[in-house]
Amino acid sequence: MSQFVTEANVFVGQSIASREELIRFVCEKALELGYVSDADAAYDAFMAREDMGETGMTDGFAVPHAKSTAITAPAVLVVKNDHPVEWPSFDGKPVDIAIALLVPDDEAGNTHIRLLSKTAVLLMRDEFKNLVRGSEDAKEIAAAVEAGISEE
Question: What pLDDT is recorded for position 1?
C-alpha cells in the first residue's frame, strides 16, 4: 500500500472561517500537491458527500471525504484550524481538525472504504486524538495518521 499522508499534506495553525472554506482549502492544496486535476470538481464531490450527512465525528474532529474522477491519486490531508468552525457532527460540537480523504473514482470501493474505516478506528483512540490535538509538528502528525491507516 502506498503512502497516503506525508508532512506536506498536514497544515497546522490555519485560520479558516467555515466548513466550506476548509474544504475549499483542502481542494486547492490537493491540486498544488498533484492529487487532483480540478479543484472545483473535487470541491463539488466533497460538498455532495457533506449534503448526505455529517462528516463531523466527535471531539472536534471531522473526516470529510470525496470520490471523484477529478481526484488522480488517493491521499489524506490533515488541517488543524486555530479555532473551531460550525460542522454537522455526531456530538453536535464544532470542528477544528479535519482529516480529509481523497479517492479516485475508480478506487471508490476498496481504497475509500479502507481509508474511511481506518480513520474511524484512529478517532476512537484517545492517544491518537491527543497526539494530533497536542502537536504542531506536521511530520509527527503525518506519521501518526499514516501508521494508523497502514495497520493490517
Answer: 43
